[in-house]
Design goal:
The structure holds three protein chains of three kinds. Chain A has a six-stranded mixed sheet with strand order 5-6-7-12-13-14, with helices on one face. Chain A is 29% helix and 18% strand. By secondary structure, chain A is α+β, with helices and mostly antiparallel strands. Chain A starts with a helix and ends in an 11-residue tail after the last strand. The model of chain A has no long low-confidence stretch (mean pLDDT 94). Chain B is of the alpha/beta class. Chain B folds into two domains: 9-91, Translation factors (Elongation Factor Tu (Ef-tu), domain 3), CATH 2.40.30; 97-259, Rossmann fold, CATH 3.40.50.80. Helices cover 19% and strands 33% of the residues of chain B. Chain B has six helices and 15 strands. Chain B has helices at residues 71-76, 114-126, 149-158, 202-214, 247-250, 256-259, and strands at 9-18, 23-29, 39-44, 48-58, 61-67, 84-91, 104-110, 133-140, 160-165, 175-176, 195-199, 222-225, 241-242, 245-246, 253-255. The longest helix of chain B is centred in the middle third of the chain and has 13 residues, at 114-126. Chain B is globular. The mean pLDDT of chain B is 87. Chain C is α/β, with parallel strands linked by helices. Chain C folds into two domains: 2-67 and 87-185, no CATH class; 208-235 and 262-339, no CATH class. Chain C contains twelve helices and eleven strands. Chain C has helices at residues 7-17, 63-66, 97-112, 118-124, 143-146, 175-181, 217-222, 228-231, 280-299, 309-313, 320-324, 327-339, and strands spanning 2-6, 21-29, 40-45, 70-76, 81-83, 90-95, 127-132, 156-161, 164-169, 239-245, 253-259. The chains are: A alpha+beta, B alpha/beta, C alpha/beta. At the A-C interface, helix 6 of A face strand 10 and strand 11 of C. The complex binds protoporphyrin IX containing FE, iron/sulfur cluster (5 copies) and FE2/S2 (inorganic) cluster (FES).
Chain lengths: 320, 264, 340
């Protein structure tokens, strides 16, 4: 048997521990898909695989037990899924193109969750469109609010939804619900002054608890959607660590631009000898220094007026 | 142009009488009709309003006895003779003196509950011909808390006065015990005709009225005054409502037949 | 008298009215909901008929126009008070039948119960009401059972049909306006809901003893005492007063009144820290009985008008109408216990 494993991996098939058998990987940006695709996945698993589907940690499906020889047939069956999910595809009918850059994951967001500050799966798709396919090792995740159910701080780019609370003092009846919620569930950014509420803009993390808890609608959400961007969290063997805050009150466009800029930066500075051509961005930043990264990342980025840039950043994490 | 009941008027402090560390009586100028048991909404601009019962009525003045608790009442304690206070009122029905004339009357008061009934005691003290016998039972926590000490001296000469405290510490000038303990031994000629007025904290009122009924008082001969969260004083804000009753309009003085049904 | 107008014609009238009145109607506040990408329907000033939301119920009622959520009563210094100004114009309010019935409840408290309320009265005297027809009932409405589904003491009635506006005018002063801007003068009969999905039965024989029933207990834990049910209610009238002194000049300030709710902490707090109804179930009891029992005892008719907004808004899915329907069982329960 002669199989080019490098090529195969780029086509989202995996070398498995069972010789002669591969697994097909189907990524779902934002983990949000119409139920009809599940039937197609079932069909592939039962026709060419061993009847099993693994729900992966990055919101995809892995269909194991596929013979190498069946890969073209599987790619044929995958095609409607790729099209339905609007995945960037290099060659039509040739399956998923995937390698270094991982599926953009997201919590369910405001499709369902009352806490979410934006539509996470829509934004995930926008990012997918902007960065896929790509061999460089990037992990991007989105979460609806600072609860961070999607654990975005463990990613290279973590995107957390925020709303800029708008206060109409004429509707406030001083019931204290917002102050209590912000104090008990969030960051104590609110205080009662003269029977009205004052927000400490610097402390506020835009979680929207005040809006959710206000019984009169004195607090409402901003029309604009805002985000906190955390950078270079990572898991792994060497030095796992949480992503640190980079931008507070960013918007969609500035985040996409920063991610794209970072690809340029990594292309320029990646260790040419990195195993498999993959190196966590954080290690590259450790090497070049944060300022150099920042120079590349913020090139031509237009921020909303209230954006706050946190610089320089120092990461902590576990060292062995 | 209709009148704006919310606008307070200025009233001058004529005298400040300190009963205890936390209870002062302010004598304030007020021209107009007012009855014992009514209350004023006293305000100090920038702090707020508090409903305060009338504890004495003079010519051109009213006495308001204020206890230092909430933030509203604290500020008042820094006011002195010659200063002015904003207030509005009087509100509430108050006691109707006529209901108690020509009767044996027992007034039982706990703590600041003495303020709203003090006007009645004063009245029968100076009009002893109008009563068939007057008893005052007043209870306080400790001797330090006793209000209107000077008046007690005066009252004692004109009526049967029982001044009692829950615990006396080292003071031996007054009795020790709850007001309820003195009810069974009340000397009355005809309990069927006798009237009683009870004002004080909720628990005290509950047990005192029970005691009076046991002693043979008729429900319709007992009156109580309800202390309540009050805000507007004029039947609008809803804070004082109990069932279909607005304490600020229909009370605070209630005949017990009605008052006993008022459940929060 | 009936009129039919096109939208441009009606907008001309709105324009005429705006010289003398603010016109308020249910309108859509984009992104104004609690959750992201949700809107809110509530009252706001409108300038064109296109802004009026006819096909949905407003979350909050018209009440906030007559009784602002937060209203300055007067300004003060150490020894002077100055009454707050009256709004520059009167108001035309578009509202449904249940809400127009609710105005009577506000009037009862603010014009009758004790003295007249100065601030309410001065606004109320300058308000005109335009009835919005209900072609059908909305979710949770129970106006039919409350007898509030029809009303005819409006200044005008309005209905939108196939892009045209049908009006029945009762206000003689407006006659020339409608005559000028209308295209036809058909007969216009107000539409009203004849049937609701939600039904309630308010039993006779409620006594204050019902407070001892066990039906209230489940609300101790279910209700979060947020007060939404009161704040959306067109008939709740409670308020609390506040004194504010300005941060930059501590000698001057203002007294305000803000809406209060008998469900929210603090409503029965007295100086010194007492609080009369601590448990949410007992607060629920107090609210329910006010709406469908003791208000009637005092004023001769029920307070609740069956708009169903309290059911629409409760974040804990507590149904007020359902709690009314438990009263029957509660009466039996307390009477059996009384016999025991
Ligand atoms: C040639 C190298 C690598 C290959 C082929 C590879 C393969 C994969 C694949 C296919 C997934 C996604 C599973 C899914 O779709 O749910 C994954 C996830 C993951 N990989 Fe790798 N990996 C490689 C290198 C690394 C390295 C160097 C690290 C860490 C230093 C790493 C850490 C992780 C972690 C933590 C996940 C879990 C998903 C998450 O990020 O939440 N991988 N890996
Ligand atoms: S958005 Fe969150 S952090 Fe900001 S004030 Fe509201 S509750 Fe507090
Ligand atoms: S929750 Fe709303 S009404 Fe209550 S204090 Fe906060 S802003 Fe005011
Ligand atoms: S019943 Fe519902 S809306 Fe009303 S206070 Fe309780 S939780 Fe809030
Ligand atoms: S109690 Fe509920 S249904 Fe009744 S009028 Fe108020 S909001 Fe409407
Ligand atoms: S239900 Fe509560 S808030 Fe509403 S009017 Fe009655 S007491 Fe006031
Ligand atoms: S104190 Fe406001 S209604 Fe009685």
């Amino acid at each position: 048997m002669d199989v080019n494993t490098k090529k195969m991996k780029k086509n989202a098939f995996r070398v498995t521990k069972h010789r002669g058998f591969t697994a097909s990987r189907i990524r779902v940006p934002g983990g949000y898909l119409e139920a009809k695709y599940l039937g197609m996945i079932q069909n592939i698993a039962e026709t060419y695989g061993n009847g099993i589907v693994n729900i992966t940690t990055r919101q995809g499906f892995e269909i194991p037990g596929i013979k190498f020889a069946d890969m073209p047939k599987v790619n044929e069956l995958i095609q409607p899924i790729i099209e339905g999910l609007d995945i960037n595809q290099e060659v039509l009918g040739q399956g998923y193109t995937a390698s270094g850059t991982r599926n953009v994951t997201a919590c369910v967001g405001n499709n369902v969750c009352p806490y979410a500050c934006y539509n996470t799966s829509l934004f995930a798709k926008k990012i997918e469109k902007a960065i896929f396919p790509n061999d460089l090792y990037f992990k991007v995740a989105l979460t609806g609010c600072p609860n961070d159910c999607a654990k975005v701080r463990m990613h290279d780019f973590g995107i957390m939804g925020m709303t800029l609370p708008q206060y109409d003092k004429e509707r406030c009846v001083n019931c204290g619900a917002c102050v209590k919620a912000c104090t008990k569930k969030s960051v104590s950014a609110l205080a009662t002054v003269n029977c009205k509420v004052v927000r400490d803009a610097h402390k506020c993390i835009g979680c929207g608890e005040c809006v959710l808890n206000c019984p009169t609608g004195a607090w409402t959400r901003s029309h604009e959607k805002y985000f906190r961007l955390t950078i270079f969290g990572r898991t792994g063997k060497k030095n796992p660590r949480l992503g640190e805050d980079f931008i507070k009150w960013a918007d969609e466009a500035s985040i996409i631009k920063i991610i794209c800029n970072t690809y340029d930066y990594v292309k320029n500075y990646i260790d040419p000898l990195a195993p498999g051509g993959k190196e966590h961005i954080g290690y590259i930043v450790d090497r070049t220094g944060f300022e150099e990264f920042k120079k590349w990342a913020l090139k031509d980025v237009q921020f909303p007026a209230n954006a706050e840039i946190n610089t320089p950043i120092y990461w902590k994490g576990i060292k062995y | 142009m209709q009148s704006n009941e919310y606008l307070p008027f200025l009233s001058e402090i004529k005298a400040v009488i300190k009963h205890t560390d936390i209870e002062y009586t302010f004598r304030l100028t007020y021209e107009g009709n007012v009855k014992p048991g009514q209350f004023f909404e006293v305000s100090i601009p920038k702090y707020g309003e508090a409903p305060i019962s009338v504890s004495g009525i003079g010519s051109g003045t009213v006495d308001l006895t204020i206890r230092r608790v909430g933030k509203v009442t604290n500020e008042i304690f820094e006011r002195y003779v010659g200063d002015k206070l904003f207030m509005r009122g009087p509100y509430g029905n108050g006691f109707d003196i006529d209901s108690y004339k020509e009767k044996e009357l027992v007034v039982i008061a706990g703590g600041t509950g003495l303020s709203p009934v003090k006007g009645i005691v004063d009245y029968f003290c100076s009009h002893s011909q109008d009563t068939k016998g007057m008893t005052l039972i007043a209870g306080f926590k400790t001797p330090k808390d006793i209000l209107f000490r000077e008046e007690f001296v005066h009252w004692q000469q004109k009526m049967n006065v029982i001044l009692t405290v829950d615990s006396a510490e080292n003071d031996t000038t007054c009795k020790v015990g709850l007001v309820t303990e003195y009810i069974p031994q009340l000397h009355l000629n005809n309990v069927n005709e006798a009237a009683a007025i009870v004002v004080g904290p909720p628990m005290m009122m509950k047990f005192t009225t029970q005691g009076l009924l046991k002693r043979g008082f008729h429900e319709e001969n007992i009156w109580i005054s309800h202390e309540r969260k009050m805000c507007c004083g004029i039947g609008k804000c809803g804070h004082c409502k109990i069932d279909d009753t607005y304490v600020c309009l229909d009370g605070p003085v209630f005949n017990f037949v009605k008052g006993r049904q008022l459940l929060d | 008298m009936g009129y039919c107008l096109d939208q441009a014609g009606f907008n001309q009238i709105l324009n005429e009215w705006s010289k003398e009145y603010f016109v308020y109607a249910p309108k859509l506040f984009k992104d104004g909901g609690s959750f992201s990408d949700t809107d809110r329907i509530r009252y706001g000033e409108i300038h064109t008929v296109e802004e009026i939301v006819f096909d949905r119920k407003s979350d909050y009622s018209y009440k906030e126009i007559l009784l602002p959520l937060s209203q300055t009563l007067f300004f003060f210094t150490d020894d002077m008070v100055k009454e707050a100004d009256l709004p520059k114009k009167g108001a035309v309010i578009l509202l449904r039948s249940c809400d127009l019935h609710a105005v009577k409840r506000l009037d009862e408290i603010y014009l009758q119960n004790g003295c007249e309320d100065y601030y309410y009265k001065r606004l109320r005297d300058r308000v005109k009401f335009i009835l919005i027809g209900c072609q059908h009932s909305f979710e949770n409405c129970f106006c039919v059972d409350m007898g509030t589904n029809r009303i005819d003491n409006y200044d005008a009635y309005i209905e939108m049909k196939n892009g045209e506006i049908y009006v029945d005018n009762h206000n003689d002063v407006w006659k020339p306006l409608f005559t000028t801007y209308s295209r036809r003068t058909p007969e216009v009969i107000p539409a009203y809901a004849t049937e609701n999905k939600t039904h309630i039965h308010i039993p006779d024989g409620i006594t204050p003893d019902i407070a001892h029933s066990k039906i209230w207990d489940e609300y101790d834990s279910r209700c979060i005492n947020c007060g939404r049910c009161n704040f959306v209610c067109p008939t709740c009238t409670c308020f609390t007063m506040q004194d504010i002194f300005y941060v930059d000049n501590g000698k001057v300030g203002e007294r305000r009144r803000v809406w209060a709710s008998c469900m929210v902490d603090g409503f029965t707090d007295v100086a010194g820290g007492g609080c009369y109804r601590k448990k949410n179930g007992q607060r629920m009891r107090f609210k329910v009985l006010h709406k469908v029992y003791d208000y009637k005892k005092r004023n001769g008719y029920h307070m609740c008008v069956g708009c169903g907004r309290c059911d629409d808004i409760c974040p804990e899915y507590i149904s007020f109408s359902n709690s009314i329907n438990k009263l029957d069982a509660a009466i039996k329960e307390v009477s059996i216990n009384a016999v025991k």
